[in-house]
Specification:
By secondary structure, this protein is an alpha+beta fold. Helices cover 27% and strands 27% of the residues. The chain is built from five helices and ten strands. The strands form three sheets. The protein has a five-stranded mixed sheet, with helices on both faces. The protein has a three-stranded antiparallel sheet with strand order 8-9-10, sandwiched between helices. The two termini are 25 Å apart.
């Protein structure tokens, strides 16, 4: 079995994959932490032959995770952003400065569709563009909806903000849904998708579950 581990700033996602059939046997998510409990937070490592890790968390989190896994698993691989991989050329002058989550998303998108726009919605929202020939153009990183709402909540005294409220119309008679609507309007203009789609002639869109 192969354990894929995506360590984010807030959540860590994992999946257990059959090395021969590529079948996904199980998957899950836990809060990112420095100490893991095999069999509770992640699958029992007795069945794992190799681990593949992508991490944007603090260095201490990655170090502790790798140390734990290497005591139990023979092969532990940590992904890094590189100048070129799988036909994609990194658009950053210093490839290592591109978050590995964005690099993995760009590589996966290119394998699926060729020219693509890879969007990852987590604590932050990242958007990366890859041309049909494999040139990574770069992209954007902006606060996720939760971070924007939390920023409003911290910076205002008397505005009621309920992070779980979903507005049902464009007009609001209460601060909570209004603040949610505003954060959406702030986010949308940050994604200049129309010009890129026209340039790359993207014909297919893949939708994934956002955390």
């Amino acid at each position: 079995m192969i354990l894929d581990l995506d360590i984010g700033n807030t959540l860590s996602k994992w999946r257990l994959k059959d090395a021969e059939s590529s079948e996904i046997r199980s998957r899950g998510a836990v809060w990112t932490r420095e100490e893991w409990r095999p069999g509770a937070d992640i699958p029992d490592l007795d069945v794992v032959e190799a681990v593949r890790i992508s991490s944007v968390a603090r260095a201490a989190v990655l170090e502790e995770t790798v140390a734990l896994l290497r005591r139990r698993v023979r092969h532990v691989h940590v992904a890094h952003s590189t100048h070129e991989a799988l036909g994609v050329v990194n658009g950053y002058e210093e490839p290592g400065r591109l978050g590995v989550d964005r690099w993995m998303g760009a590589l996966a998108g290119y394998q699926l569709a060729g020219g693509c726009c890879a969007v990852d919605c987590g604590s932050a929202i990242t958007i990366d563009f890859v041309l049909p020939g494999g040139q990574h153009l770069g992209g954007f990183i902006i606060p996720g909806l939760r971070l924007m709402k939390e920023s409003l909540k911290l910076g205002t005294r008397n505005v009621a903000i309920d992070l779980k409220v979903r507005p049902m119309s464009c007009w609001s008679q209460d601060d909570a849904p209004l603040m949610r609507l505003i954060t959406v309007f702030i986010w949308l203009p940050s994604v200049p998708l129309t010009a890129f789609i026209a340039k790359c002639a993207i014909k297919r869109v893949w939708r994934c579950q956002c955390c």
